[in-house]
Write a structure and sequence with these properties.
The protein has 152 residues and is mostly helical. The chain has three helices and no strands.
Length: 152
C-alpha cells in the first residue's frame, strides 16, 4: 500500500512541474528595443527645410551642449596633464643638476686621495710587520659572522 501512495505522489509532483515548465514556453518572448545615442528623428515638416539649413542645425541644442562640455573637460584634463608633466620634468632637471654636482665632488675627492698616495707602508721582512698584517686582515677583512667556522 505504501509504495502505491509514493508512486501516486511522485506522479502528481511531476505533472505539476511539467505544467509549470510548459506555461512560459507558450507565451511569446518579447525582445527589448535597442537604444542608440543618436538624436531623435526630425519631424516631416522639417525635411523640406533641411536643404536650406546648414548641417549644424539638424542637431537640437540639447545635443550640442554636452559636446561642448565634453570638449572643455578634455581640454582641461589635457592642460592638467601638461602642467604635471612640466613640473616632473623640472624636478628631474633639478635632480640631474644635483647628482652631477655630487659626481664632480666625489671625482675631485677621489683625485685628491690618489695624489696623496698610500701613507701605509708595510715591510714583511720584520716580525712586527707580519703581526700588523694579521691585525689589519682582521680589521679590514669580512666580519666574523660572515666567515665560515664550522663545516658540516
Amino acid at each position: 500500500m505504501e509504495p502505491l501512495i509514493i508512486a501516486i505522489l511522485i506522479g502528481l509532483i511531476t505533472t505539476i512541474f511539467n505544467k509549470v515548465k510548459e506555461s512560459p514556453s507558450n507565451k511569446p518572448v518579447r525582445q527589448k528595443p535597442i537604444q542608440t545615442a543618436s538624436p531623435p528623428p526630425s519631424e516631416s515638416h522639417e525635411r523640406g527645410s533641411e536643404r536650406e539649413r546648414p548641417a549644424r542645425s539638424r542637431v537640437p541644442r540639447e545635443y550640442k551642449e554636452p559636446l561642448k562640455d565634453a570638449a572643455s573637460s578634455i581640454q582641461t584634463r589635457f592642460e592638467e596633464k601638461k602642467k604635471e608633466a612640466e613640473s616632473t620634468y623640472a624636478d628631474l632637471q633639478k635632480k640631474e643638476e644635483r647628482y652631477s654636482r655630487r659626481l664632480e665632488a666625489h671625482q675631485t675627492r677621489a683625485e685628491k686621495i690618489r695624489e696623496k698616495g698610500s701613507t701605509l707602508k708595510i715591510d714583511f721582512n720584520k716580525e712586527d710587520d707580519i703581526v700588523k698584517g694579521f691585525i689589519f686582515s682582521e680589521v679590514f677583512g669580512p666580519p666574523r659572522s660572515k666567515k665560515r667556522h664550522h663545516q658540516k
